[in-house]
Design goal:
By secondary structure, the protein is mainly alpha-helical. It has helices at 29-52, 58-84, 89-92, 97-140. It is flat.
Length: 144
């Protein structure tokens, strides 16, 4: 039996050095449960769709929608809530409050600028529409 090839020196210090096989990182139970629920919900929705795709009568599709579709969407919502809330309070306290306030102020300024821009575009379009409508009205008048 052949001996295993030695690892390069720069890889020998890694904790995974010399291990064989596939190792998955340990996931927190909340993330694992959220991922499983999202996948289960997606499978439920796909099964419900597969059962109703050939039915043309909407009344015949309702039981499949109620059992598979809504349950699947509910499972995905709960799973997404678990996945999204997995960071917990760490994400909320990541930025200092002053930085959050500064970002909110910048967003408010951007929204005000966008609102002004939309108003200017609307005013311009109204002027264009008024100038295009005037010749049509003049042409519609009978000549004397």
């Amino acid at each position: 039996m052949a001996s295993p090839t030695p690892l390069p020196a720069h890889l020998a210090d890694l904790p995974e050095a010399g291990r064989k096989g596939l190792t998955l990182p340990a996931l927190p139970p909340r993330l694992l449960a959220g991922g499983v629920l999202v996948v289960a919900g997606l499978i439920s929705v796909l099964i419900a769709w597969g059962q109703t795709r050939h039915l043309e009568n909407p009344a015949a599709q309702i039981p499949y929608l109620a059992s598979g579709g809504l349950i699947g969407v509910g499972l995905m919502a709960v799973g997404a809530a678990l996945l999204g809330g997995a960071a917990g309070g760490a994400a909320a306290t990541a930025a200092p409050p002053e930085e959050v306030v500064a970002r909110i102020d910048q967003m408010a300024e951007n929204i005000d600028w966008l609102a002004d821009t939309v108003e200017q575009i609307a005013a311009h379009l109204n002027r264009v529409a008024a100038t295009e409508a005037a010749p049509v009205d003049a042409a519609a008048r009978p000549r004397s």
